Structure formats: structure tokens, C-alpha cells
## 1
Amino acid sequence: MQQPLIEYRLTLAGVDTRALELEGDGPPLLLLHGYADSADTWRSVLARLGREGRRALAVDLPGFGTATRLDRAEGVLPQLDRFAAAAIRHLAAESGQPVVVAGNSLGGCVALRLAAWDDLPLAAIVPIGPAGFDHPVWFSAIEAQPVLRHLLAAPVPLPEAVVRAAVGEGFRQLAFAHPRTAAAEAVAAFTQHHRSTRDLRRYLATGRRMLPELVRPFDLQAIRVPVLLIWGDHDRMVRHQGSRHLMEALPDMRYELLPDVGHCPQIEVPETIVRLLQEFGAGAGAVAAKAPRRRRKAEPADAAGSA
């Protein structure tokens, strides 16, 4: 039976956000989107998970979509960590089970960072084309897009339709292996949060703030939960060669390199992503149920992460 997708407002770690939730069974899934994106990127995956009867929650990360803006006085990644940790605890408390976190790009980076915490009810993580490895070509690729540069150089405010059309074209070119075949509804969902050049400048400013934070942002040796790494072999924004760092640090992880797929597999091949999540989640849930609960060492930085 198809589970209905419920959309509502939710407050996590003091952040007001939008949630897309499915009720269902199995280890609950928390779905985290990438930079300048929103929970809408998971709609195709959520539709298929609803038919599978799987419990899942997608949220707008702080500073993106319709969520509360980021605090400029604090680093970006710590704010995302704190928010996502609260989402994990919320979903685990509701379901009574540890959570599988799947994240694309920046969301994958956050999933990897939180997997090093040992006081979270995590069953497993699924980073999908995660940011944070090697040179951050994704941001230079965005800034170099001619259509976006022309938008930002405009001497007067531009109509929303013009801005969204230009952003959509840039999104097609950067995020997909075959830009012209990208689903129109997915492109429209992405651009609904890019209505003006002011929005573009805010997102670009956030990206520039993050760049120094994305230099060695992980403690991979501390990860003890199962990991399924997914990457598209035509990812233009985050090169799949970065997978070598994870394979060296986590030799027991599972790695799926998807042929002829770009930066957003959840949009390009949602049926493949759902199949992998279902297979991996079932096994990870069984492992988590048997594993002893670990306690995280108390550190000064932990206070923010435990909110």
C-alpha cells in the first residue's frame, strides 16, 4: 500500500524547517540534501519508498530551502551537524529504532561527520557523492557557469522567471550526466528556492564560507557503523576518485559506482537508490540491533553536537 507523504513544519535544534515524512516499517531513513538544494531532491525516492512501506524523513538543512537561515557568527558545518544530530534523535525516538542516514553531496559530508560520533542512534550511513574529498571543484564549477555569471552581473533586478530559467540550466549542466534528459519537475523543484539574484548571492556566500571547513572535515578512523558509499561515475562536481580515501580508511565498507550517472543519483536513478537503500538498510538494521551501545567521549565541542 502506498504510504502518503506528509509535509509539515518541524523544529530541530532551534531550527525551523520543512519536513517530508513517510510512515512505515524498517530502519528509519533520514535523507539529507546537498548544497543549495532542499528536501525536494528526494521526492522521487520518497515516492518509491512509500510504495515499499519504508519509514523516511527528508528535511531542509539550515540555510537552505525554507529552513531558518544560518548563523553568520558560527561555522556552517557545526550548525549542520547539530541540526542533523537532532533529526537523528527525533526520528529514532519516534520509531524506536536506530536510523540510517543517506546524504547527497553536502548531506553526505554531514552523514560522514556524524558517523564518527558514538552517542547517536545510528544504524548506518549512505553517503552519495559526498563533498569533502580532494580539491572542492564543485564550487569553482558553480562560480564558473556563464549563465550564472551573467545573472549576477545584471545591473537591475531580474524577473523571477528569468532567474529560475537560468539557474535551472546551470543545474542541468552541472548535476546530471545527460543534462537534456533531466526531469523537468526536479529542475523546477530545485529552482523554486532560487527566485532572485539575492538568493543566488546568499547561497554563493554560504559556499565560500564553507570552503575552508571542507578541508579534511572527517575523522574516518572513528567511524564504526556500516557504510554504503554511492557515487556516479559521471559526477562533474565531486569526482568519484575521492572514494579512495574512504576505501583506505574503511576497507569493509560497500561501494557502488553507478555507470553513466552524475551528481544527483537520487534524481537520475531513484529506483536504483531505493533498491540499494532497501538492501543495505535491512542488513544494517540487524547489525545495529546486535551491537552494544557505545558512549562518546566528552569533549568541549560535543555540547553543540548534542543539542
## 2
Amino acid sequence: MAWPGWGARAIASGVSALAGAGAGLVTDAASRRPTLPWIAGFAVLVLLMAGSQIWLTLVDGRSPPDRRVRAGGVVVGGSSRAAIVTDVAGIRQVPGAPAGGQSVIGSGAVLVEKVSAGEIRTRVRDVEER
């Protein structure tokens, strides 16, 4: 059975949350009686939280999967606030099968990975794709 793609991120998020809770407890104990072990424990927990958050940020910045975008197709890798308008007419294609791991974004299609706050209008006329 393969490890799910979200599994490592879930573990890193859990580690960060537990380290944050632990850091709160250690901060309380260290402020009552500041000794070297409490201060060292606090530093380790802070480094653990920072490291897991840096790792999560790097994982989220990975390159998107391979995509074939057909005529007039739009892919926004993040969020969009602007209006997106596509107008496609008279396209004749023989695209072939996508290679392994590729997805196909059709003619005039719009894909916004995160949040779209703007208007999206598409118009596709006389398009024949085989």
C-alpha cells in the first residue's frame, strides 16, 4: 500500500502542533524556575516547530504536476483576484494521449489552484478535438 500524498504533511502538522503545546508547557515551567534543561528543552521545541513549518512551506511550493493546456486554456498556480476571460474559436487538434502523470486542460478551460475572487468567463465555439 502506497503512502498517501497528504500523509507526510499531516505528520509534520501534528508534530508542529504538539511541539507548540509542549513549548507552552516548557515556557511556563522555565519562567517559574529557569534552569538550563528547561531552556534547552524550549529551544529544541522551537527548532522543531520552525523546522516542520519550513518543511511544510517547501512541500507546498513543489512544482505542479505536468499539464497539457489546450488552446485558450488557463492555469493559475495560486489564487486569482482578476477577471479571467477566454474566447476560443475554430481550433482543430489531434492532441494524442497524455504522457504518464499528465493531465489535460481542455480548450477554453480555466483551472485556478487555490481561490478565485474574480469573474471567470469562457466562450468556446466550433472547436473539434479528436
## 3
Amino acid sequence: MRLLIINPNTSKGVTERIREAANAAAEPDDHFTTICPSFGPELIVTPQDAELASRAVVETVKAYNAPCDGIVLASFGNTGAEEVRALRPDVPVIGIATAAFAVAGALGGPFGIVTFGQSLVPGLTDKAKEAGVGGQLIGVDALAINDFGDPGTVQCRYRRELGQLCSEMQQRGATSIVMGGGPLAGLAAKIGAHCPVPLIDGTSSAISIIRSATLGTSPQ
């Protein structure tokens, strides 16, 4: 399976976290290309960020000439998804928020979201509602900091604190937890052994969904 995986922000560190998470989900014959745009915001927080990042994602897809079997948009805003689907109707296109919330919905029961920035809480709440799982969401917990620094290293610097938030979310009644935000890609596998409920990674969830969608199809 050949996938184009796009980090819609321009952080090289976040792109590397996403690449690591994607490669960890790869099977022997898979070929994943993980890239970020050449312009746009380092982190997508505001509507203006999202608009610019969407344009950057579209230009990135237009410039990609290699064959692929699917496209993953690795932001929890599903940034540029509609535009990319219009541009590439020949392949499945999925954002990591859509994928993560699909898994949470399939698992059933109440779930929570753990993220790294207070400013991200409203947007993540809205995305859960848009995905149709708002009724299952019991809350969104974020690090109690205002300036989390380099988004590419946030999961390394605050791993213990993020793990603690997961434990607290489970104690509140969550039967699964979505790790919210591209910068947390791959963290679920690193701390999951210390949490008694499933931690859902958007990148690996998106890859699994595309794999299921393309199962049995011939390479293009």
C-alpha cells in the first residue's frame, strides 16, 4: 500500500513524529511518504491558520507526482480534506481526527481526549461533535501550560504529564482516549502500557481505515 501522508503544518519536528507513527503501522510491502507543505503555519490553532494550511495542503498534493493508494491528512482539523477529495477523487482521503473518532465510536462507551494545549480544547470538542461522537465525549484535558514551546518536542518533554492526564481521564470513566493533535502522533504506543484503556492514535487509525478500504484492490 502506497500512502501520501501530509502534516498540514510546517513543523519539521511534528512531521518526524508523524513519520515515526506511520512507519510503526506499516506492513512489509507498504511505502509511506510523509511530508509537510513548504509554506503555512508551524501549528494550526486559529481559523486563519487553518485557511492558509488548507491552501498549502492542496499545493502539496498538486506537486506530488508519484502514484499512491490513499492520502492521510495528519491534523485534527482534517485540514484541506474536502479540497483534496475534490482534487483526488480516485483515492481515499482521510484526516486523523475523522479516523480517531471513528475508532472511538466503534469501540463504544464514553471516551475522552487528551491534548497538549488549552487553546486546542474548543476545536477538538467541535471535531468530536462533527464526527457524530459528541454524545460519547466526557471531556478534553490539556496540559496546564500556556506556552508549550516547540510542537515537535512537546510529547517528549511532557510525556509524564500527558500520561497522568490519560490516567485521570480513565478514572473519570473514559473507556478509550483519543490523543489529540498531530504533535502527539505515536505517543499512544509509548505510554499505552501504563493506561488500562485503549489510547487511540489518529495516524495509525487513518492508515488502518485506508488499508481496510483498499483491501483486495489492485495497485494503480
## 4
Amino acid sequence: MINTKKIIVVLPAYNASETLQKTYNEIPFDIVDDVVLVDDNSTDETLLVAKELGITYILKHDENKGYGANQKSCYIKALSLGADIIIMLHPDYQYTPKLIHSMAYLIANDVYPVVTGSRILGKGALRGGMPVYKYIANRFLTLFQNILIGQKLSEYHSGFRAFSKEVLIALSLEHNSNDFIFDNQMLCQIFNKGFEIAEITCPTTYSSESSSINFSRSTTYGIGVLKVSIQYLLHKKKLMSFQIFK
């Protein structure tokens, strides 16, 4: 705990057996109270590794529901366990758990209600092996999103995020997509509710075991990102209404 606030790390897992142990071993248990892993019907030994590591709370989807659905299960379970601060960490070791201290303290001391690890601040992305086409797409999408949404984030696509429970309770996550666009819908919901987001520089490690989506799905994701940003703009201008912002 920090300032009597219970901290839970959630791991949305899919085929993470090769990297789960390395990720788990770097979680700072001097402040983290519990870990929740949700397995999205992996085809490898993710569940076995999780049990061997002694992760207390392990949930398994009976079918592959998608990245967004995995996060929904993670947050529901964490809140049911009484979490005050929830850290979402990918178990593929793309993001270092060593930043959990910094992210959690910002929330525990009421500096910011949401903190994300940015691969774009500094040179962490390219130095860590992010494919050049993904880096360029990230920069263009972020530029357009900042214009449409009216914010100044360095990136909207990081998968390393920390939330206060008040933020998660305030969002209508059940209306969001079960796919990768969930992350962007969530950020727009956060801004819509008036919460601020802090960013910290995050080194990144890309490897053959890192989670990734192919070019075709990346294109679909990019189109979805722009669609969500336009929906947010139309909602704020009171021109249209969308379920995710209700």
C-alpha cells in the first residue's frame, strides 16, 4: 500500500508464457498488494506459468474474447478486491514493471488520477526496437488525435497505464469495444469526464515474444482510432450522442 491505498496490478494475458515470469519478477511487491491475471484463452502454457508463479487471482476466458474484453475482466476483478489504484501491465515485458513505483505514487499522493507510460517521450520506442512504420503511424495518429480531442499527449497507444478506482468507476467500460480500440475509447472517456492524465518516460523492449498486431489489423486499428476521436469531438460539440460517453 501507499498512504493506505491498496494497489493491484492487472495482467491481461494472451500467449505470454515466455515472458510472464520475467515481467512478474520485476513487480515491486513492497507496494503492490495483489496481482490479477486474466488469460484470454491462450494456446500456450500461460496458465501453467501463472500458477507456478503463485499468482493469487487467475481468471480464464472460455473463448478468446479480445484485448478489450480482457481488460474489462481485469478491472472488474480488481475493483471487487477493493483496489484503490489499478496498474495495467502487459505481461509480454514490452514495458518495465520498474516504473510502477513512480506511477502509483503520483496517484496515491493525489497528483494525477491517471498515469501512462509513454514510449515517445525520449527515444525509448525506436531504441527499444519499435518497427519504424509503427513509430511513424503512432506520431501521425497522435497528432490528429490531439487536434480532434484538444489535448497534448505524447501518445495515445501505450499499454502501460495506472488508474485511481474513482476513474474506473466513472467510466462506462462495458460499452467499449472488446478489441484493441478499447484503449483509445477509454482515454476519450477519461477526458470526457474531466480527468487529467500524466505521462512518464517509459523505455520499451520489443522482441519476438512481444505482443503485436499485423499490418492489416494495425490499419483497422488506425481507422478506429480516428473514428473514436471524431466521435469525441462531435460529442463535445453536442452535435451527436454516443453510448460510450453516456
